[in-house]
Design a protein that fits this description.
By secondary structure, the protein is of the alpha/beta class. About 40% of the residues lie in helices and about 20% in strands. About 40% of the residues are buried.
C-alpha cells in the first residue's frame, strides 16, 4: 500500500508540474522586430518590455529584440519588409497607415504575425482586418484612437475655458481622420477652427504656432500621433498662452493609457509565440479613459477650472 501510495503521489506531482509548465515560455530564443515612430525609452515601450519580462521573456536569454525608430514612414515600412525577410517570429508596429500597408503586403506571403499597438485609425474601415472579433490574416493588436475622442476633448475644453472664439488644431498626416472629427465637433459647437498640418517630424510646435499669430485662436487642440511629443506641444502652448488639450501632457488631457495599451500588445506577442494565430485574436479597444487637469498650467494661464470639470477629473495636478 505504501508503494502504491507513493506512486500516486509521484504521479500527481508530475501532472501538476506538467500543468504548471503548460503556460511557460517554450525553450528557444524568439526574435521580435519592432518599428516605431517613438524611441525605445518612451514609457509605453518600457511598459511593453516590462510585461514581456513578467511573462518570462528575457532579452539575451530567450528573446532577441530588434528595434527600429524613425520619423520617416517610408523607412519604417521598409523596416517591416526587412524584418519579414529575416524571418522574425513577430513584427510589432504602430498604427501608421503606410507601415500597416507594408505589413499586409510584405508579410502575408511569409505569414509573419504582426501585432499593432496604439493604432490611431479604424483598422476595420481601412480594410486591414475582416472584423474586430476575428481579424483574419496575420494582423491583430490594440486600437488606441477613435475620432470620437477628439470631439470629447474639444467638448471638455469648451467647458473648462470660457468665451472661446476660435480654436487652433495641429495635426499631421496620421491625424487626417481625427482632424475631420474635430472640425465637425467645432462646427456643431459653432466655433471657427484653424487646422494646421505639421510636416517632417520631429514637429516644431513653436514654429507652427508662431506662424498662426495673425489668426491665432483662444485654445489649442492636437490630434494623437505616432510622432507626437506631448511635452513639447504643451510647452509651446504655454509660451503662446493657449489653453491646450491633447492625448497627453497639457492643461487637460483625455484618453486611454498608452502603457496599458502596450502591455496588452505584449500579451498578444506572448500568445502568438506560444502558437496562437493573429486571425483568432480579437482586436482590442480601450475601455478605461482618464481625464487629467493640470492646475499649475491653469494658474500660469490665469484660468480657473470650473468645479464641474474638476469633479470629473481622474487626476488633478496641483
Amino acid at each position: 500500500m505504501t508503494a502504491r501510495w507513493l506512486f500516486r503521489v509521484a504521479l500527481l506531482i508530475s501532472l501538476a508540474a506538467a500543468a504548471a509548465n503548460a503556460d511557460e515560455v517554450p525553450a528557444r530564443v524568439f526574435h521580435i522586430g519592432i518599428v516605431s515612430g517613438t524611441p525605445r525609452s518612451h514609457p509605453a515601450h518600457i511598459a511593453f518590455e516590462d510585461r514581456l519580462r513578467e511573462l518570462g521573456y528575457v532579452e539575451g536569454r530567450n528573446l532577441t529584440i530588434d528595434f527600429v525608430q524613425n520619423n520617416d514612414l517610408d523607412r519604417l515600412a521598409v523596416a517591416v519588409g526587412e524584418f519579414a525577410r529575416r524571418g522574425v517570429d513577430v513584427i510589432v508596429t504602430g498604427g501608421q497607415d503606410a507601415v500597416l500597408k507594408a505589413a499586409i503586403t510584405v508579410t502575408a506571403a511569409r505569414a509573419t504575425p504582426v501585432v499593432f499597438r496604439a493604432v490611431d485609425e479604424d483598422p476595420l474601415a481601412k480594410g486591414y482586418i475582416a472584423s474586430l472579433s476575428h481579424p483574419g490574416g496575420n494582423l491583430t493588436g490594440v486600437v488606441f484612437e477613435q475620432p470620437e475622442l477628439n470631439a470629447k476633448r474639444l467638448d471638455l475644453l469648451m467647458q473648462a475655458v470660457p468665451h472661446i472664439a476660435r480654436i487652433v488644431l495641429l495635426y499631421d498626416v496620421a491625424g487626417a481622420e481625427q482632424r475631420e472629427a474635430v472640425s465637425k465637433a467645432a462646427s456643431v459647437l459653432g466655433v471657427p477652427l484653424d487646422a494646421i498640418e505639421l510636416h517632417s517630424p520631429p514637429y516644431d510646435y513653436e514654429q507652427a504656432l508662431a506662424e498662426t499669430d495673425g489668426a491665432r485662436g483662444d485654445t489649442l487642440v492636437t490630434t494623437s500621433s505616432p510622432f507626437g511629443r506631448g511635452a513639447a506641444a504643451a510647452e509651446a502652448a504655454l509660451r503662446h498662452r493657449l489653453p491646450y488639450i491633447g492625448p497627453t501632457e497639457a492643461l487637460m488631457s483625455y484618453g486611454p493609457s498608452l502603457p496599458d495599451m502596450f502591455r496588452i500588445a505584449a500579451d498578444y506577442v506572448d500568445k502568438i509565440l506560444k502558437g496562437a494565430k493573429p486571425a483568432d485574436l480579437p482586436v482590442q479597444q480601450p475601455t478605461k479613459f482618464k481625464l487629467v487637469v493640470n492646475l499649475k498650467t491653469a494658474k500660469a494661464l490665469g484660468l480657473t477650472i470650473p468645479p464641474s470639470v474638476l469633479a470629473r477629473a481622474d487626476e488633478v495636478i496641483e
